[in-house]
Design goal:
5-stranded antiparallel beta sheet; transmembrane; 567 residues; Penicillin-binding protein 2a (Domain 2); alpha+beta; transmembrane helix; Beta-lactamase
Length: 567
């Protein structure tokens, strides 16, 4: 009997302990976890409020935490119908000043306080400052997108939740609340980091307090807060340098209609700039206009898309042959030009008797077909993989890999010759090519690319960091040094002289991948680094529908490199 009583006491004790723990957890959840949310809802019930920001959302920034969207503050007409004694009269007066239909304003007023997105003329601004209608204010609103937002393909764009399926998916994958019609990320970093970027409530707002019957509480008037806390929203900090990104995009807009440019920090996998053309303006107000008349590939990021690299792939063969001691720089070969087989040379008359060093500078196809035969498909595949040409991953940027990339196809029958000059089944992305040239510039170490440094709060403190992946040894330091000299020859005396960077010098490799179209254009490549003696920047330019790597891509490389070095 005594034992049974003890058991009952113990069961009662543990039951009470569990109940107390559950109550404590519930109170903790209400007060600390959901406290701000409940406070916001209570405040919204007791007030009429308008958010003084275009979107309740964190920023996507460059490496210095400067927003890439170019956000700015602008005075906007903010209307509080609850503060109007005669709403019809006041809205008609406002409509006359700003040149809008009063019926439209009345329709907006039915939903509560609002602001108008129109830009005011000096005359309208003066009228509203001098004799504003009752309940109308001029207040600064944060506009997310400036006139020229940068890195549109990287940041992606926003769109409203338009389907029940999308709404349910967001609710299932997030602890945050969503409503149909909310603006959410549709592509790029806006999409990948939706859960971190989405805010819970405004950081900037204007509010009028109401009583239980919805009447304005006398004496309190309008309250404006421009520094409210929203711990739920975070900023995505990229590795992009805004100044370099701006240079890249301005040069591309002047010289390229279709293609890609990547800038990587030498000795690191950090991407400092990454742009694709044709591009689009991610601002919701201008997105539709920027897409009008464009082809379907405007959404395609060519930086992470697959292309044949042409002669840029000869870097792999040269590095492998030197690393394995299978070729000497002064070894002689014979080029028969158009009569060479199985792959002819781009120079119809041929290069005749030529050393390996000269063949690399002149991008002689028959020589590299012979080098490919010496190496064999398996060795080429191994070195291409070590140099990153099978790795499509970018740290912090979880894009899907394209399964068409298959280095093993180099070993299939009849593919070796074309593969040795970067044609046939060889497919790479501009990001991968940049990482490959960075390996040469970095003494033989391959650094996996990184685009996002982490996620930070509104004070700039990292909540989550995305570390730079550890480098791996791809080729020996000796081989990297020899390759640097060979790449320097390309810009000084070879086919890439138009990529020569004044004062600082440059090194790199051209590529011209045939497109098999009627006009004979190519995917024109130049990938290299500057300064030549102490590499700081690795730059890849790929121009779709160009004439050749040396004539089309090299000059773009030169202009971008010189402008970057000047800053």
């Amino acid at each position: 009997m005594l034992e049974l009583r003890k058991k009952r006491i113990m069961l009662s004790f543990w039951a009470m302990t569990m109940a107390f723990a559950l109550i404590t957890w519930h109170l903790y959840n209400i007060q600390l976890v959901e406290g701000n949310s409940y406070a916001l809802r209570a405040s919204q019930i007791r007030s009429q409020e308008v958010a003084l920001e275009e979107f309740m959302r964190g920023e996507i920034t460059d490496r210095n935490q400067v927003p890439l969207s170019g956000g700015y503050y602008a005075n906007r007409v903010v209307v509080f119908p609850k503060l109007m004694q005669d709403q019809q009269k006041e809205l008609e007066q406002l409509a006359q000043v700003i040149g809008q239909n009063s019926a439209d304003l009345n329709k907006k007023a039915r939903d509560g306080a609002f602001y108008l997105t129109l830009n005011l003329t000096s005359k309208q601004l003066q009228a509203l400052q001098t004799t504003p209608p009752e309940g109308v204010f001029l207040l600064p609103v944060y506009i997310r997108y400036g006139d020229k937002p940068l890195a549109g393909h990287i940041t992606g764009y926003l769109g409203k939740i338009s389907s029940q399926e999308q709404f349910v998916l967001l609710q299932q994958n997030s602890a945050k609340n969503y409503n149909l019609g909310d603006w959410v990320g549709q592509s790029g970093l806006e999409y990948f980091y939706e859960q971190e970027l989405k805010g819970t409530y405004p950081q900037r707002w204007a509010r009028v307090a109401l009583d239980a019957r919805g009447r304005v509480i006398n004496g309190e008037g309008l309250t404006v807060n421009t520094s409210a806390a929203d711990p739920a929203r975070l900023n995505v900090v990229t590795t992009i340098d805004r100044n370099i990104q701006q240079i890249v995009e301005s040069v591309m807009d002047a010289h390229m209609q279709n293609g890609a440019v990547i800038v990587m920090k030498a000795g690191s996998g950090d991407i400092l700039a990454m742009a694709s053309r044709p591009g689009y303006d991610p601002s919701p107000a201008r997105l539709g206009h920027s897409l009008a008349g464009r082809q379907g590939d405007v959404y395609v990021d060519h930086c992470t898309s697959l292309f044949q690299p042409g002669s840029v792939f000869k870097v792999v063969l040269a590095a492998a042959a030197i690393d394995l001691g299978m070729v000497d720089l002064d070894e002689h070969f014979t080029c028969l030009g158009a009569n060479a087989g199985p792959v002819r040379c781009w120079l119809d008359g041929g290069h005749g008797r030529i050393t390996f060093q000269q063949a690399f500078a002149e991008s002689c196809n028959p020589v590299f077909v012979e080098i490919g035969e010496r190496l064999g498909a398996d060795t080429i595949i191994d070195y291409a993989g070590a140099l990153g040409l099978s790795n499509q991953a970018i740290a912090g940027y979880p894009i899907k890999g394209d399964k068409r990339q298959n280095l093993a196809a180099i070993g299939e029958r009849f593919n070796l010759a074309n593969s040795s000059v970067g044609q046939g089944p060889v497919l790479v992305t501009p990001v991968q090519v940049t990482a490959m040239l960075n390996t040469i510039a970095s003494g033989g170490l391959y650094y996996p690319p990184r685009l996002v440094a982490g996620v930070a709060d509104d004070q700039g403190r990292f909540v989550r960091e995305i570390k730079q992946p550890e480098p791996t040894s791809a080729i020996s330091a000796y081989t990297a040094g020899v390759m640097q000299d060979l790449l320097r020859e390309v810009t000084e005396v070879g086919v890439g002289t138009r990529a020569q960077v004044a004062q600082w010098g440059s090194a790199g490799k051209t590529g011209s991948a045939q497109l098999n179209n009627a006009d004979g254009t190519v995917d024109a490549w130049f990938s290299g680094f500057t300064p030549v003696n102490n590499p700081q920047y690795v730059i890849t330019v790929m121009v779709h529908d160009g004439s050749s790597g040396g004539a089309t891509a090299a000059p773009v490389f030169k202009e971008i490199a010189e402008k970057i070095m000047q800053i």
